[in-house]
């Protein structure tokens, strides 16, 4: 089974609360967070993760995109649509992806690690490209009178983010993940979200995943019809989701499950045995070959030490099945 992460990782030196100065530096000095990306990459690799992230170190999942997409303007803590959504001049997340890939390759090609990994293990390694979904981004902003309705805004934004996904694939991403945390809340129209995901995924040739947070009872069957390869959900913090997975597994039609096996909302470090038990529940429903193993959600709100230990125990648990 392949191990991965959902996205964010704690900043080095506990810099989770970005100062105004650091945010300004981030916008105008593209490499101001390179050390944090390096820290994130090396921490994940040291824990044994296969498909890592760049750590999403430059900001939260909304501002990483809406700060730079033409049509949006921020007033205080709220984004407003001021004009029709258009494509930014350059891809938004490619630079950090490339930085992460470089640090990953440097790590894997170091003398110590060349001896540590065999070819099969190295071939599994990669960096995922992560995009906050258009439904979540529009739900997080005020659309005003620019669009007749929310659906039109979401679909326009999906067209813009489609080019982001293509750019991430072309830059070397191992997989693409779309984060739609609001889908499980009932605030979003699932059919609109489905159309948007289809727009974004139609030209992608690497594994394409959707990540949803929370209780999935009202949306999981719908998710099985989305044009994705992987459906990633929380199972450690929301064990009731196993019931909904079990009841709808017959609709998966070849899709794999991203099985969240560590609770990222709780600083308690799960034991290897606890994680093994969670994985066993997933295997019993969909089979070992249909699982990717990861945390429930992003890890940015945890301390560096706790995040690392949780990931390390997760990898140890996976190895009990892979050995």
UniProtKB/TrEMBL annotation:
Keywords, sorted A to Z: Metal-binding, Methyltransferase, Transferase, Zinc
CDD domains documented for this protein: CIMS_C_terminal_like
Matches recorded under InterPro entries: Met_Synth_C/arc, UROD/MetE-like_sf
EC number: 2.1.1.14
Requisite cofactors: Zn(2+)
GO MF: 5-methyltetrahydropteroyltriglutamate-homocysteine S-methyltransferase activity; zinc ion binding
GO biological process, one term: methylation
Domain Cobalamin-independent methionine synthase MetE C-terminal/archaeal intervals: 1-319
Domain of life: Archaea
Protein name stated in the entry: 5-methyltetrahydropteroyltriglutamate--homocysteine methyltransferase
